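re: ur question from yesterday

yeah so i grabbed the chain u mentioned. its 390 aa long if i counted rite. heres the sequnce exactly as i have it in my notes:
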Amino acid sequence: MEKVLDSEKNPIKMWISEVDEGTIKQVKNLANLPFVYRHVCLMPDAHSGYGMPIGGVLAANNVIIPNAVGVDIGCGMFAVKTSLTHDGLFKEKLPEILEAIRQRIPLGFDHHKERQDETLMPQNHEVDKLHVVKQQYFSAIKQIGTLGGGNHFIEIQKDTENQIWIMVHSGSRNIGLKVAEFYNNKAKKLNERWLSSIDQKADLAFLPFESIEAREYYLEMKYCIDFAFANRKLMITRIMEVFSDSFRDIGFGDPINIAHNYAAWEEHYGKKVLVHRKGATSAKAGETGIIPGSQGTHSYIVEGLGNPESFMSCSHGAGRTMSRTKAIRTLDLDEEKRRLDELGIIHSIRTRDDLEEAASAYKDITDVMRLQSDLVKILVELTPLAVIKG
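ran it thru and got these structure tokens back, copy pasting raw so excuse formatting
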């Protein structure tokens, strides 16, 4: 539920129970920006990031901030319900399904060895006019349909009615990173030239929309959002093909796709503003969304309630309680493996490095959902059966 934290210039509205000092410092930097519209928001999964907290929402007056979008532009979720039920035959075939998925979808830093069909790439853009995208385009044709590393995953899940779901979490791969880095560096140099009063150490360099650089970044960002969607769509398509090879009469429901790292022009409180969601999801009234848990915990299909106080936004997941480095250093490998094994989840925790994405490194997703009950309502609760990590 919403709480308000006063800052020097603009209020901070929070749907979070406990906030670490680093996140508080970052959100105060955000709230003191001169172009903030009304207030800034912290979702219940918030934690510190680069410049803007992950789980933050900022509405800005005619300004865009590359670090308030993030380096994995367009990162998001894709989910599809199948006609299968979690029965004995499915359990028997699940290991071979997982192996077939690994054969078709490169994981981690791996890319396809050959370029994929170019028609799979976003088609509604003039690539030649996009400076960074043009440079990265042919490399990206080998990256489409690949998972990536970090917290990206493929999960096979069941709902409370025992129906099987497929879920993918992934983003724009290297092309999004290159766009983010290029325009953040450009914004920093321009802010220095303009003698901006904004502290460079806050990593919140901005581009006003009066500048050609802002408009160029916005177009390249939109391409990366579309590429991230195409990337997830291709992975889901190939996973569906794997399922169809094992279950000839399988059916699939309508796909659900959402992004949680982007900026978009929207109208709020009667004014058109640029809403930045970094690790946050749109939750307009009646809008269907996806909020995943951590490895081994529930995920949720939700419906937005259109709460204006959050700029119609909600969390993008459970949110970290510790850094990846701390998780690897402090968590008990045997305990994390045992917990997933006892739940009957096929997982990929094998070595200490795998602990960076262990469930114990994340907040309790049930608490996160409780704290945002005025932002979304739960439509479907999903339990993981198998997890493939990048």
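noticed a couple things. The chain is about 30% helix and 25% strand. also Helices lie at 21-31, 88-104, 131-143, 173-193, 212-246, 324-330, 333-342, 365-371.
anyway ttyl
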